[in-house]
Amino acid sequence: MSHPTEIQQTAEPTQRQVIDVLFRDRAVRAYTFTTLGALAMIFMVMFMNGSDLGGVLVVVFGAAALVLRWTATPPFLLLIIAYFLVFPFGIPDLGSENPYEIRETHFRVADVVLVMAILVYLRAQYRVFGFVHQIVPFENVVRRKGDVPTRRPPGHIRSDEIAWLIGIAGAIVIVGQIVWWLVNSLDFVPMEDFPFRWTDKSSLVSAYRRAPVPGEFRPGQNRFFLIIGGMFFGTLLLRLAFGYWQLRTMNAAEGAMILTDTSWAESHRERVRVEKWRIWGRQRAEEEAKRAEVRAKREEREREARRTKRRN
């Protein structure tokens, strides 16, 4: 058997070495079982939803990606899950649309468990890739022969990483459910003094059947405008808050580095122009020196020829 640490110095580890790291190293084994447990939870929720075929596909491809290091599989699994959530039996349903379906899907236990399992799976899977495949890209765009991928040493795993991983996933799910409830509980009415109001769910069916009045949007359009506006203003506020917090926690050396980098970025065009003039001046001086040297040699030959002519 190979030792789990041997994979750190190996450019192309064998499948035996990968399996040894996944199941013999105690720290990495915790991530392996976390990934498999998340896949099991996804299968359970999809099976309860009637998507037994989708659940089997997720488990099979997820387990294969874990062992065989298929780095492109997690996004593919998200597409499979999304498809079988819309069409549980794998066949498009041409039935009538339920106008209450989307607005009443917040804080459902199955959805909360499924989303949390997906988040845990993605985070754990990519951390496993960091142990057995690669954690940072190569310095060059094209990998050079003999380059060893940088992998995270298992000894750097903290004892509370799994707990933090699950806790952060749960917090993200709760925040997402609150945002989804808020988006479905507000109407965007730009024609009124205050552009938002609480949704009247009793008139939801009639809103689908009749033509909207001027300044009124359908539920899907409301969600679109609210999500776009929330993303824009939320990103702006978070950028301002975290930017100010970063400035407050920055020491003098880090501040000088940021200012230097900003100065280089702002003066890039001027520095390029000055550098071009400097290169041109150096090339011109070299050309003038060469011309002077050629002229001096020619004059020396002419003087030598005149001396020879006088002697004769």
Specify the overall morphology. extended
Low-confidence stretches: none
Mean pLDDT: 84
Radius of gyration: 33 Å
Number of strands: 2
Query: What is the beta-strand fraction?
Result: under 5%
- Helical proportion? 55-70%
Strand order of the largest sheet: 1-2
Category from helices, strands and their pairing: mainly alpha
Describe this entry's structure for a reader:
The protein has 312 residues and is mainly alpha-helical. 67% of the residues lie in helices and 2% in strands. It has helices at 15-24, 26-48, 52-68, 73-86, 109-132, 161-185, 204-209, 219-249, 252-266, 268-311, and strands at residues 186-188, 196-198. Strand 1 (186-188) and strand 2 (196-198) form a beta hairpin. Helix 2 packs antiparallel against helix 5. It is extended, with a radius of gyration of 33 Å. The N and C termini lie far apart (95 Å).
Task: Name a few traits of the molecule.
single chain; 312 residues; mainly alpha; 3 domains; two-stranded antiparallel sheet; 2 strands; extended
